[in-house]
Amino acid sequence: MTQRNNKIADLTKIALVAALYVVLTVVLLPFSYGPLQFRLSEMLNTLAVFNKRYIWGVTLGCLIANLWSSMGAVDMIFGTLQTLAMTWLSWYVGQHLRSLPAKLGATVMICTLMSWAVALELHLVSQVPFWLTYLTVGIGEFVVVVIGAVLIWLIARTVDLSK
């Protein structure tokens, strides 16, 4: 495959991940935003351990999906930056781990712990209690990223997601 074809393939994969993130967020709109959040699209965060391109797909998907957020530009900026930070951190930590289960487990922990940023955003904009919101958003994040880790692990057994 030529370098040009590789770039086209990478851009296509980024666009597909972004589109999937948007669809999974918008289809479950009532559960995707707010202090009681179950954003199923966050399971795609686990893709970051395979290739840096997925960081951009998930981040772009988050930016577009946050167009539907009641917090508007605040969520588009800060929610998207938080997604960029946690997917990059997941990729970075994954580079220092050997086994796929360890990489996926680290991603689950990183994404769950970093849900503080969403809790802070909701606290500042909507005046909801920070710690309770951190707990509820963190539980939702944990559940969906674990689901994503299991699904991605199963997919990775037959599909090379790093290419």
Automatic annotation (TrEMBL):
The chain crosses the membrane at residues 14-33, 54-71, 106-125, 131-156. InterPro entries: QueT (IPR010387). Keywords: Membrane, Transmembrane, Transmembrane helix. Gene3D superfamilies: 1.10.1760.20. The keyword Transmembrane applies. Pfam families: QueT. It comes from the Bacteria. PANTHER family: INTEGRAL MEMBRANE PROTEIN (PTHR40044:SF1), INTEGRAL MEMBRANE PROTEIN-RELATED (PTHR40044). This is Queuosine transporter QueT. It comes from Ligilactobacillus salitolerans. The lineage of its organism: Bacteria, Bacillati, Bacillota, Bacilli, Lactobacillales.
